[in-house]
Design brief:
By secondary structure, this protein is an alpha/beta fold. It is built from three helices and eight strands, in the order αββββαββββα. The protein is 29% helix and 35% strand.
């Protein structure tokens, strides 16, 4: 009987798993300023993201083209949704005379400009760097490119492998850098 109780206790102890931790991509902390009626309407998206990011688990890269999916460290929302949300919030803060909405657009169909493109990489590598790699451009309401398509690559140190809070901060910084570049490109288009 003692052996059965000991065996049952051991099996119950083996059944527990580590807790799951959730992380978020954060927008710029510049706040909102109501300086008057916005003169522009800017849409963020569509931006295609790779299928390997279509999961809640955080994905990192290892040596020899290895991709690691961490079951115990996850994003609080789908990464493609986070990209749209954060880019819209960042650009809403950086482009003061515009209202910026994220894809999918529901009731705002009369956009002046749309940021479009394809994300080819948004993760961290074995070298400790978080990377955002994408092709992007801005089209007008007449579907003409006002910011010609271009390739961009951003890298930020994410610290040591397994430091997920640092990784989330680094990925937020990647989207901030990209947002600043988009805002600067839009200024060249929208200023007289």
């Amino acid at each position: 009987l003692a052996t059965a109780v000991l065996l049952a206790a051991l099996l119950c102890g083996c059944g527990s798993s580590p807790p799951v931790h959730y992380y978020d991509i954060e927008a710029l902390e510049t706040g909102y300023a109501a300086a008057g009626e916005p003169s522009l309407r800017i849409g963020i998206g569509p931006l295609r993201t790779p299928d390997y990011l279509d999961r809640s688990q955080i994905v990192t890269r290892g040596a020899d083209s290895r991709v690691m999916v961490d079951d115990f460290n996850r994003w609080v929302e789908p990464i493609s949704d986070a990209i749209y949300r954060v880019l819209a919030e960042n650009l809403d803060s950086l482009v003061t005379d515009a209202v910026v909405v994220a894809f999918p657009y529901t009731h705002i169909a009369d956009l002046d400009y749309q940021l479009v493109g394809r994300v080819s990489r948004f993760d961290a590598g074995a070298d400790g760097n978080a990377v955002l790699q994408l092709q992007w451009g801005v089209i007008s309401s007449r579907n003409e490119f006002v910011v010609q398509p271009r390739r961009a690559r951003y890298a930020v140190s994410a610290g040591q492998a397994g430091d997920y809070p640092a990784l989330a901060r680094a990925m937020s910084e990647l989207l901030q850098q990209f947002s600043r570049d988009v805002a600067e490109s839009l200024r060249g288009v929208t200023e007289p």
